[in-house]
Amino acid sequence: MKIQVSALYQQGKYVDALARMPPPTSLEKRAADYAAYYAAQAQLKLGRVESARRQFATLVASHPVGYLSEAAAVGEAEAAEAAGDYAAAQRIYERLLLRSPLALDEVWFRLGRSSLAAGNRARAIESFRQVYQAFPLSQFTSEATAALSTLQALEPLAPGNVRYRAELMRADLLFAAKRYTEARSAFAQLRAYAMGTERDRIEVRRAACEYFTRQYAAARAALRPLRERGAHQAEARLYDLMAARALGAHAEFVRLARGLVDDFGDTPWAEEVLDTLSDYRPAYLRSKARPGKPAPAKSPPARTSTRRSGAT
C-alpha cells in the first residue's frame, strides 16, 4: 500500500493518492503512519491547508519513529507557513532543533525564514548565521548568506576580516569536495580582497576549477602569469600542463612535465606529474615511433616520496 500511495503522490496524483488510502485501522502502526503522512502531504499539495495541519499534528502526536518523526514535524511547519501562521512554524522548528534532526542545516534555514516572516528579526539573523558559519557546504548556505546580506547583518568583505576568512574556508572546502563550479564562484569573489601569496593561491585554484570543468583554454590563459612567479608556481604549472594535454598539445605536455619535475622535483606536484607520465609517456612515444622502429626507451626521472595529499 505504502509503495502504491507514495508512487501516486510522487507523480502528482494527489486526489488518486487520497482515494487509494486504506483505513488506518487496517494497517500496522508503521504503515499507518506513512499512510497518514502521504495523506497530509496530498492535502497540503491540494491547498487544503487546515486539513493538512490537523493531519500532520495528529501524526506528530502519535510519535512516529525514525525519519518519519522529523518529516512529519517539517510537514506540520510547512502547513503552518502555508496558512500564514509563521509564529507556529517557528515554534515547531525550535522544538525540532532540540531533537538533533538529521537535516540540521535545513531546519536552521527554515527556522530563519519563518522567524523573519513572523517578525523576529534577531532570531532570523541568528538562524541564518548558524547555516552560514556551521554548514559551509550546505545547499542552503547561499540563500542564508543572501538573507543576511539583505538584513544588513553580514560583515562586508575586506582583506583578512572574519567574513573573508569564512568565505575562503568555504571556497577551499568546495574545492576539496570537487564542487568546482561553486568553488570557482567562491574564489572569484575573493580575488579583489586577497593579497600577496594568498592572492596567487586563489588565482591558481580558480584556474584549477576551470581545468576541472573542462574549460582548458580558459585555465591556461588564467595560469599564464602564474607559471613564472610566486609561491604557487609549481601548482600553476601542473594544471597548465594538464590543460595542454587535454587540448591535444602532447609534445608540449611532455616538455612542460619534464620541466616541472626538473625544477620542483621535491614537491607533491612533481610526484603527480610522474604518476601521469608513467602511464602516458610510453604510450605517447609508441604512437610517435616510425613503423618498424622501436620507440626511445628513456625512463622518466625517479619519483620522490612526497604524497599528493600533503599539497596545500
- SS summary, helix count: 16
Q: What would you say the CATH architecture of the domain at 1-83 is?
A: Alpha Horseshoe
Shape: elongated
Distance between the termini: 53 Å
Low-pLDDT ranges: 282-312
Report the sheet with the most strands, covering strand number, pairing sense and barrel closure. none
- Series of secondary-structure elements, N-terminal to C-terminal: HHHHHHHHHHHHHHHH
CATH class of the domain at 1-83: Mainly Alpha
CATH topology of the domain at 1-83: Serine Threonine Protein Phosphatase 5, Tetratricopeptide repeat
Derived from helix and strand composition plus strand pairing, the structural class reads mainly alpha
Overall radius of gyration: 28 Å
The proportion of residues forming helix, as a percent range, comes to 55-70%
Tally of DSSP β-strands: 0
Mean pLDDT metric: 86
Percent of residues in beta strands? Answer: under 5%
Task: Please describe what this structure looks like.
37% of the residues are buried. The protein is mainly alpha-helical. The chain contains 16 helices and no strands. Helices cover 68% and strands 0% of the residues. The protein has a domain of 83 residues: Serine Threonine Protein Phosphatase 5, Tetratricopeptide repeat, CATH 1.25.40. Helix 8 packs across helix 9. The C terminus is likely disordered.
Features:
mainly alpha; Serine Threonine Protein Phosphatase 5, Tetratricopeptide repeat
In short:
Helix content is 68%, strand content 0%. The chain is built from 16 helices and no strands.
Fold blueprint:
Layout: H1 2-10, H2 14-19, H3 29-45, H4 49-61, H5 67-82, H6 86-97, H7 104-117, H8 121-134, H9 141-150, H10 162-176, H11 180-190, H12 196-212, H13 216-223, H14 233-246, H15 250-263, H16 268-288
